[in-house]
């Protein structure tokens, strides 16, 4: 997965969608079980503490492209490792 510039992780993209749009509840077991779907739509990532909005030091921000729009969500580091 490509590392992206943190400036791409904006409020508008955070609000544009979520992992729930793929029919996956935002819970660790479901995320890991659905990693192939998430890999399909993931376009890149950034360290969670580097994003300008909602920075989280214990997470990875993952950017997705789905149905013509970009959006991003934080995932746990171990969830991200499963998605790589």
What does this structure look like?
The structure is a single chain. The model has no long low-confidence stretch (mean pLDDT 90). The protein has a 3-stranded antiparallel sheet. The relative contact order is 0.27. The longest helix has 7 residues, at 35-41. The chain has 4 helices and 3 strands; from the N terminus they run H-H-H-E-E-E-H. The protein has one domain. It is an alpha+beta fold and 84 residues long.
Question: Layout of helices and strands, plus pairs?
Answer:
Elements: H1 11-15, H2 28-33, H3 35-41, E1 42-47, E2 59-66, E3 69-76, H4 77-83
Antiparallel strand pairs: 1-2, 2-3
Order of helices and strands: HHHEEEH
Structural class: alpha+beta
Envelope shape: globular
Alpha-carbon distance between the two ends: 6 Å
Sheet with the most strands? Answer: 3 strands, antiparallel
- So how many helices? 4
| Largest beta sheet: strand ordering | 1-2-3
* Count of distinct structural domains: 1
Instruction: Note the beta-strand portion.
Output: 25-35%
Helix content: 25-40%
* Radius of gyration, in angstroms, nearest whole number: 11 Å
Number of E strands? 3
User: Uncertain spans, ≥5 residues at pLDDT below 50?
Assistant: none
Mean pLDDT: 90
List its traits.
84 residues, alpha+beta
Give the gist of this structure:
With 84 residues, the chain is an alpha+beta fold.
